[in-house]
């Protein structure tokens, strides 16, 4: 796919936009949020997790990607009202999303009065909804855009098709004329705020999580078609797990 001269990202909606039916969500995978806060500029909150992707050639969905699965865009809303809106949107159906980290624009941690920063005020709202307080997003711009480019190039990141502003924004991002390794950052256009939040989400928590042993066992057992062999393998795996448990008996002095 060809891109306009100076375009920063190798975006292809046919590869990078996924439908809900293509994604296998797993409860053990981490979930996090990225927020680029602004008042005159837009506040953009994005929700993230890792999912397995089903394709025609991979119905077992062995390939995992970072997925941006929800967006919330707000304008001219103060930090406390924005935090309320974000907390209210933090659910899938009737289930609360178990967010582990919230990554916020680093400049929002500076004090705006004698005692509080915007991050403090948003955090005071979040904790009322059992959400974590914000952390400083990783703001290494060049490294962040390079990681975004690499993950797009290797199909390591995707966007759910309901995130229309993210889908619209990424192909608009252009290189900075003064530093071609960076992206443009000056302007009031929505796509700039969306892309900043996208970079925070990828760069701040892009590392792959180890698959829990119980999940590995379940996948192996379910891949066996014969029920007898399936049960035998279950006994072998559970016996091995029990043998790995070490009991320590303290010595008492009489």
What does this structure look like?
This protein has 254 residues and is α/β, with parallel strands linked by helices. It folds into two domains: 13-208, 2-Layer Sandwich (Nucleotidyltransferase, domain 5), CATH 3.30.420; 210-254, no CATH class. The protein is built from eight helices and twelve strands. The strands form three sheets. Strands 1, 2, 3, 4, 5, 8, 9 and 10 form an eight-stranded mixed beta sheet that branches. A two-stranded antiparallel sheet has the order 6-7. Strands 11-12 form a two-stranded antiparallel ribbon. The relative contact order is 0.17.
Quick overview of this protein structure:
By secondary structure, the protein is an alpha/beta fold. It has helices at 13-16, 79-89, 118-128, 141-153, 164-169, 190-204, 213-222, 227-243, and strands at 17-18, 23-25, 31-36, 43-55, 58-74, 91-92, 95-96, 101-104, 134-136, 157-160, 175-176, 179-183. The protein is built from 8 helices and 12 strands.
Largest sheet: 8 strands, mixed
Uncertain spans, ≥5 residues at pLDDT below 50?
Answer: 1-6, 245-254
Total DSSP E strands: 12
Query: Radius of gyration from the CA trace?
Result: 22 Å
Structural class: alpha/beta
Could you give the distance between the termini? 78 Å
Keywords:
254 residues; two-stranded antiparallel ribbon; Nucleotidyltransferase, domain 5; 25% strand; eight-stranded mixed sheet; disordered N terminus; alpha/beta; disordered C terminus
